[in-house]
Write a structure and sequence with these properties.
D-amino Acid Aminotransferase, Chain A, domain 1; Rossmann fold; about 375 residues; nine-stranded antiparallel β-sheet; 3 domains; about 30% strand; about 30% helix; single chain; five-stranded parallel β-sheet; alpha+beta; Dna Ligase, domain 1; 22 strands
Length: about 375
């Protein structure tokens, strides 16, 4: 009984007040858990949902430290935060999950890839590069993907280098060249671990990315893969979180090669776009599971209630300004469709403004509905 009273009386501070924080708050309300938010945007999606909203720079030591002092437990919804401040808070007895040294490792894609190699986690071959000249000297490694070591986010900081002519696109900063993977599918697994050491994975999902902007356009759950691959992918996600020694929720993005081999692409130590459908489709959502993990509560039931698809609602190309949503009435007539808008006042091309989850037992019907809904909902200005 003491353990239950313990987490019920603790506040949770989140660095970042975007849509992920907003959906964490929505889950926390059911447990009367007080959520504090730090975000640089005065009009962040969490602004009016948190009893303590602080506007401030997530990368500033003093700002993050002062915010963290007013919370019992601290977590993140974005990796680009001041880890020195989090480490200081941890030294002073605050619970910080994921742990600051893990955030620091994941912030740097170079260290992330070296970690996979050291721990025997399958990943694509790679070469570390210090600058553009370094990358241009690796013609024999092409085709490859050049990634910035730090600050890449939502498709930014990634360049496909297929031929010698493309080498001019290489970044003139520390990065890595990853061998291009001619994959069959892009998959993702959400895994969670609490302080007690309990681990649970969600069913594997399949992601379809926008061909230009490298953002998830559609997601399908469950992935159309053999049971053996499903089992292997979930075991691989568990291995990653255990090798990290991490507490919290972790998204593990995977390539399934045409030869049937799984390779870890990247990881994110927070709720992730590949788990949004879990709000309606699973026994527990990724957002509630995140709360349960970082607050050392029992982890929830991850099993699927239904097959599902998720459509990202992005700002329309050519529109910047105060957001207006077209097509809501048509969407509301769709059976099994659930709209989530993120409370962002301003739209710009390809900004994530919301998502729609669709439930249907028939996979063909799901794919048809997902395409129809993508063409129905438009965010304009």
């Amino acid at each position: 009984m003491m353990a239950e009273e313990n987490y019920q009386k603790k506040s949770l501070g989140i660095l970042g007040g975007g849509q992920l924080g907003r959906m964490v708050i929505q889950a926390a309300i059911n447990y009367n858990i007080e959520i504090h938010i730090l975000d640089p945007d005065a009009n962040a999606p969490c602004k009016h949902l948190s009893p303590r909203f602080v506007q401030g720079n997530l990368k500033d030591f003093d700002t993050v430290y002062a915010f963290g002092k007013g919370c019992d437990i601290i977590t993140i919804e974005i990796e680009h935060v001041n880890t020195d401040a989090l480490e200081q808070l941890e030294k002073e007895g605050k619970k910080v999950f994921p742990q600051p040294h893990i955030i620091r490792l994941i912030q740097d894609k170079r260290k992330q890839k070296q970690f996979y190699k050291e721990k025997g986690i399958p990943t694509s071959p790679f070469i570390l590069t210090e600058n553009k000249q370094d990358a241009q000297a690796q013609m024999g490694f092409l085709p490859a993907v050049h990634k910035l070591g730090k600050e890449g986010y939502d498709g930014r900081g990634v360049q496909l280098i297929r031929t010698e002519q493309d080498l001019d696109k290489a970044f003139d900063a520390p990065g890595l060249l990853e061998k291009f993977v001619d994959f069959d599918k892009e998959l993702a697994v959400i895994v969670a671990k609490n302080e007690r050491g309990d681990i649970k994975t969600f069913p594997v999902v399949e992601c379809a990315f926008h061909p230009v902007h490298n953002l998830v356009e559609f997601l399908f759950s469950p992935a159309e893969i053999p049971a053996s691959i499903e089992k292997e992918a979930r075991a691989l996600a568990e291995k990653v979180i255990e090798e990290l020694g991490m507490v919290g929720i972790l998204a593990v993005e995977l390539f399934l090669t045409k030869e049937g081999k799984l390779l870890v692409n990247e990881i994110a130590p927070r709720p992730h776009n590949s788990g949004h459908h879990t709000i309606e489709a699973n026994g527990v959502s990724q957002f509630e599971q995140h709360i349960r993990a970082v607050m050392n509560m029992p982890l929830g039931d991850t099993s699927a209630r239904s097959s599902a698809a998720m459509v990202n609602v992005l700002g329309e190309d050519g529109y910047t300004g105060e957001a207006y949503v077209e097509g809501i009435d048509e969407l509301l007539k769709e059976e099994g469709a659930y709209l989530h808008l993120y409370g962002k006042k301003l739209t710009k091309p390809f900004r994530k403004m919301g998502h729609v989850t669709i439930l249907d037992s028939d996979l063909a019907a799901l794919k048809s509905k997902a395409q129809r809904i993508k063409e129905t909902i438009k965010i304009k200005a």
